[in-house]
Amino acid sequence: MTVSLRDAALRGKPLTQALIIDWHVHLGRWLLTYSPVVDEAMFAAMERVGVSKICVNGSFFPSAREGNNRVAEFARRFPERAVPFAFLNPYQNDLLDELKRCVEELGMRGLKVHSMIQGPHSRDAGLFDWSPVWEYCGRAGVPVLAHGIVHDEDIRRHPGTVFVIAHGIGVGLRMRGLRECANAYVDTAWTQTRASSLKEMVEIIGGERILWGSDAPLDDFAHRLGVVLDAGLSEEEQRKILGLNAARLLRLSL
């Protein structure tokens, strides 16, 4: 008898029968909050619930370049578990130069941008031109995990670049306006994390454009998994969201 993912979780079993990739994980600690499990200590927590891989970014580090180096070194140490994402700070480094270094020299597979660190008004004020970054990501097949910085017109102007709106299952109204943009995705790492919001997002853009993310170590793998498993989705939709969509975007061999 085949046990569903939800039933396996309710029995306290790790979900080893599904590919689970966490799209939204930070290396290190954010000093504004307590994180009991960080870096390689997260692996034990992953194994308890069946998470296979984590996509790691270095946005917690004061220096973007140092954070990128630390993420690359972490991924080299744990290549079967960690997928490295670059991070950019336009106040510290040339955007395109650092991105190319991360992708072409360090082997980064994605890019994280964050308005809290990169300046919520820098893009609107015209201080920095992010268009070359989006264009490069499209050519290189590098998906962008965007916490701010990216506007709807960026998504429309760069259809060859995948933009994943961080914490995006909470922005149903915005995604209704981007429904026709096949390059607009969301992740599940929303602070409120209501299962009903995930169900609504599936109805808006479909399960193929939603990626599971925990925001670890700021949140718990099991908690974020429970939202997907309890949203009333089909098992096929659950498997896409939990890992298959991420594997497709990252071009991982399964």
Folded structure, characterized:
With 254 residues, this protein is an alpha/beta fold. The chain has one domain: Alpha-Beta Barrel (TIM Barrel). Helix content is 40%, strand content 14%. Strands 1-2-3-4-5-6-7-8 form an eight-stranded parallel β-sheet. Helix 4 (95-105) packs parallel to helix 6. The mean pLDDT is 92.
Identify the CATH class. Answer: Alpha Beta
Helices and strands, in order, run as HEHEHEHEHHEHEHEHEHH
Mean pLDDT: 92
Number of discrete domains: 1
* CATH level-four homologous superfamily name: Metal-dependent hydrolases
Q: What would the principal axes of the Cα set say about the shape?
A: globular
How large, in whole angstroms, is the Cα Rg?
Answer: 17 Å
* Oligomer state of the chains in this structure: single chain
CATH architecture heading: Alpha-Beta Barrel
- Helix proportion: 25-40%
List segments where confidence is low: pLDDT < 50 over at least 5 consecutive residues: none
How does the major sheet shape up?
8 strands, parallel
Structural class assignment:
alpha/beta
State the CATH topology: TIM Barrel
Spatial order of strands in the largest sheet: 1-2-3-4-5-6-7-8
- Give me the number of helical elements: 11
Total number of strands: 8
Beta-strand percentage? 5-15%
End-to-end distance, in Å? 25 Å
